[in-house]
Amino acid sequence: MDDLKILIGRSNPELGYRICESLGVEPTQILLDNFADGEIRVQILENVRGKDVFVIESTYPPADNIMELLLILDAAKRASARRVTAVIPYFGYARQERKDKPRVPISTKLVANLIVSAGADRVLTMDLHSPAIQGFFDVPTDHLISDLVFEEHLAMTMWDEVKEGNVVVVSPDIGGVRRVDFLATELGASIAIIHKKREDANKARALTVVGDVRDKIAIIRDDIVDTAGTIKEASDLLKRSQYGAKAVYVLATHPLLSPPAVERIENSQIDKLIVTDTIPLKEEAKQRLVPH
């Protein structure tokens, strides 16, 4: 492990420290602060020449997280690191991956180009909004999925229900069917689909359920919970008498939880929300959603 150096950004330091603890290595010392005007200041405080450097930084808003990642990558490259890997648990700007309207940017490709130009030799990320995005990076890219983690959790907490066929995995939209297929196959569960119409970037209207969820635990699988409009409406729909789900769980990789997400979840038919730590939970979510 002597050739391994791990630089932890400020977007999710808790995850970075847990990774180091799991590997049995000390995080590499780095200075990260801000000048009086808000500019980010970076200095790697250890020698990384000829080392294998991993930079851990999620790029959720604000844009300072992306800028900090770029600066750390540049610093590591200029310090003659042998290889620099950008570890991006949550890759922001992944929802603008195509030109679907006139005069809009392809933000995903722009951010990918910036990361490579800053010095990344390799990218490691998790549950991209669209799997095709890994092709946007002009360097080798490892795209991890969190389904195995969720499967392990479900096996530990509700295996009897799974064995008895009382679980159905629900895609919140037609486009997410491929995402739920792996988890459903591993659990031996059936699949249902929410047919919906998206009215705006953060507004979606659930229409109908395709599949049988009656008297079953419906597990909605999605990559992101942003304002929670989709999962609230889906959970309300699944529990209507005409569909009759007995419980609704939500598995989501990236808990952005932008307002009014917490309020919507509290006022929804969701029985459990299970997320990963690619993004640290906001204080409001910790206080109001996490059992104490």
Report on the architecture of this protein.
There is one protein chain. With 292 residues, the chain is α/β, with parallel strands linked by helices. It has two domains: 4-144, 3-Layer(aba) Sandwich (Rossmann fold), CATH 3.40.50; 147-289, 3-Layer(aba) Sandwich (Rossmann fold). It contains eight helices and 13 strands. The protein has helices spanning 13-23, 64-78, 107-118, 147-163, 177-187, 229-238, 261-266, 283-289, and strands spanning 4-8, 30-34, 40-44, 52-56, 83-88, 122-126, 141-144, 167-171, 190-200, 203-210, 217-225, 247-255, 272-275. It has a six-stranded mixed sheet, with helices on both faces. Strands 1-4-5-6-7 form a five-stranded parallel sheet, sandwiched between helices. It has a two-stranded antiparallel ribbon with strand order 2-3. Helix 6 links the parallel strand 11 and strand 12. The two termini are 38 Å apart. The model has no long low-confidence stretch (mean pLDDT 94).
What topology emerges from the helices and strands here?
Elements: E1 4-8, H1 13-23, E2 30-34, E3 40-44, E4 52-56, H2 64-78, E5 83-88, H3 107-118, E6 122-126, E7 141-144, H4 147-163, E8 167-171, H5 177-187, E9 190-200, E10 203-210, E11 217-225, H6 229-238, E12 247-255, H7 261-266, E13 272-275, H8 283-289
Parallel strand pairs: 1-4, 4-5, 5-6, 6-7, 8-9, 8-11, 11-12, 12-13
Antiparallel strand pairs: 2-3, 9-10
Brief digest:
The chain is of the alpha/beta class and 292 residues long. The protein has helices at residues 13-23, 64-78, 107-118, 147-163, 177-187, 229-238, 261-266, 283-289; strands spanning 4-8, 30-34, 40-44, 52-56, 83-88, 122-126, 141-144, 167-171, 190-200, 203-210, 217-225, 247-255, 272-275.
